[in-house]
Design goal:
There is one protein chain. Helices cover 57% and strands 4% of the residues. It has 557 residues and is mainly α. The chain has two domains: 389 residues, Rossmann fold (3-Layer(aba) Sandwich); 125 residues, no CATH class. Helix 21 runs parallel beside helix 24.
């Protein structure tokens, strides 16, 4: 399993205090992981504290003003909101990434959800600061990840107010019964439900201001059991839209079981539960999600819900996306289609976990839990209503391809067609592009250092950002590689000594013409080897490598 930063690494100290206060004793085996989390929590608390203090009172006052005896505070956002529903491992992330290709939608990114107390300044800093420390892929599978990638807002609610089932699921398994109540919001005390509602409202309100004229796009599997509460979060005249995706129930259970084992090993601060206990928990959460959605789906106004199936999304992603837009009366656009095709090309080699399991005869049997006959019966009953009218889907797609069935006032949905890539021969060579960027940065750095009479070694981090970003942008749509990443990192690493000699000669020895090259290099090396400079050198080279080696580019970036 690949290493990954803890999803509560930037949760503030008061959230960690609440978590540890409600938890059993942490075994010494997990103290190093806890210490690392608390260290980064201190950093995250310090980074977001100024904006948190400025915004907290304003948001609280706005919430209390709207929250009266007769009305509840709602998220007012004229462009609307779209929620992706579906249990964990049903394809919600793939669907979320596809929808986020639409630049008319605004979805939270991981740097926002990991530090939800922040805002403009702290989010801008963390978006760049987290690049060297976040893995390119999720710890449980090969799905892409990074500070700029679309994220689940449940992580923001968790790190805002600990009003989520995530801690009991992956961090403190011994407290599962306490935190799992937030999965479907059943059995919560009034103050606990209010804590969840305020955190969800506050984060969505903050996002709505960033979104401006774009619709909000949210995805968290737990929202499948929150339909009633999500509907009540919005004004009656601005109901949110929903897209629900279903998948074979046994595949969902097997995949969730494997994911839970991996994520507890990655994030846990307590020993994992027995496999039988874990399997029962996985099935129970799935059952509660299914029953809650079946109970509340009629609360969604007509025309505000689209239902699809995982198999259809895998077989024809673009056609399924068109179906969703048709069902929700959303306008299609050529720009969306082009970005969606680019994204689909970047993930063309990805296989879902269950397909990998079926193709791998050496897969350990422990990773494929045996379901009892009673459990199999329960899953069949729960998934009976999940069947999606595939014939209706195909009929809609066929009509759209024939140019029929569209409203005259809406953008017509065109047939996907393979067009020759006229820009292929005009693509910029990423190796040459980042080399040229390094040269330009070096010249500008030397000029600035001479003007200010200061070498400013900390500029090596933004220099690495620029070099890596150039590699990332010019390697689209195919993405980068580890070789390109190493090239970008090497250019960044060599950049500092390349500018150190001429700048040190000017700033330290311009009045000492007798100074030798050895004297200049000795002084330059002494300053370059300082602790702060080494840290920023690491940040610059690591960032350049991360950007240059990214095999996939975030949708709509």
């Amino acid at each position: 399993m690949r290493p990954s930063a803890h999803f509560m690494a930037f949760a503030p100290l008061d959230v960690w205090w609440r978590l540890l206060k409600q938890s059993d004793r942490i075994n010494p085996r997990y103290w190093p992981r806890l210490a690392a989390c608390l260290a980064t929590s201190i950093l995250g608390t310090a980074i977001t504290l100024p904006e948190r203090l400025l915004r907290h009172s304003a948001l609280r006052r706005q919430y209390q003003t709207q929250n009266t005896a007769n009305t509840h505070a709602t998220v007012k956002h004229d462009p609307g909101a779209v929620f992706v529903l579906g249990h964990y491992r049903t394809g919600t992330t793939h669907l979320h990434y596809l929808l986020s290709c639409d630049d008319r939608m605004y979805t939270p990114r991981w740097h926002q959800c990991l530090a939800p107390h922040g805002h403009l300044l702290s989010w801008t800093f963390l978006r760049l600061f987290l690049v060297p420390f976040m893995s390119e892929q999720r710890p449980q599978d090969d799905v892409s990840l990074g500070p700029d990638w679309p994220a689940e807002d449940e992580f923001a609610v968790n790190n805002l107010a600990l009003a989520s089932a995530l801690p009991g699921r992956f961090v403190i398994p011994g407290a599962y019964s306490h935190y799992t109540r937030f999965h479907d919001l059943a059995g919560l005390a009034d103050h606990e439900y209010e804590r969840w509602r305020h955190a969800q409202w506050a984060f969505l309100t903050t996002l709505s201001r960033r979104a401006a004229s774009r619709a909000l796009l949210l995805k968290s599997p737990s929202h499948t059991a929150h339909v009633r509460d999500i509907v009540q979060l919005f004004p009656p005249d601005q109901p949110p839209r929903f897209v629900h995706i279903a998948r074979n129930a046994e595949d969902v259970i097997h995949s969730n079981f494997n994911m839970a084992k991996r994520l507890i090993a990655c994030y846990g601060l307590q020993a994992p539960p027995d496999d039988s206990v874990l399997l029962n928990r996985v099935i129970d959460e799935y059952a509660r999600s299914q029953r809650a959605f079946a109970r509340d789906r009629d609360l969604i106004p007509e025309g505000q819900l689209a239902c699809i199936h995982f198999d259809d999304l895998c077989a024809d992603a673009l056609g399924t996306l068109r179906f969703v837009y048709e069902q929700l009366s959303l306008d299609w656009s050529d720009a969306l289609e082009a970005r969606a095709q680019t994204y689909l090309q970047s993930v063309a080699g990805y296989r879902p976990s269950t397909r990998r399991d079926r193709d791998d005869d050496n897969e350990p049997s422990a990773d494929k839990p045996l379901l009892s006959p009673e459990q199999q019966t329960t899953l069949r009953e729960l998934s009976a209503d999940d069947a999606v009218p595939v014939s209706a889907l195909l009929h809609c797609v066929q009509e759209s391809q024939n140019g029929n069935g569209t409203d005259p006032g809406r953008t017509s949905i065109s047939t996907p067609r393979s067009t020759p890539d006229t820009n292929r021969d005009r693509r910029v060579n990423p190796w040459a592009a980042c080399s040229l960027t390094a040269l330009i940065v070096a010249v500008l750095w030397i000029i600035l250092a001479v003007l200010l009479n200061n070498r400013m070694d900390t500029l090596i981090w933004p220099a690495g950002l620029l070099i890596g970003w150039t590699a990332l942008r010019t390697s689209r749509p195919r993405g980068g590689s580890w070789k390109l990443g190493l090239w970008a990192a090497a250019l960044t690493l060599l950049l500092l000594p390349a500018i150190a000699h001429p700048v040190t000669k000017y700033t330290h020895y311009r009045n000492h013409p007798q100074a030798t090259t050895k004297d200049i290099w000795t002084t330059a090396w002494h300053e370059m080897s300082a602790g702060a400079t080494l840290f920023w050198l690491f940040m610059g080279t690591a960032t350049a490598y991360r950007y240059g080696s990214r095999s996939r580019v975030p949708p709509n970036l």
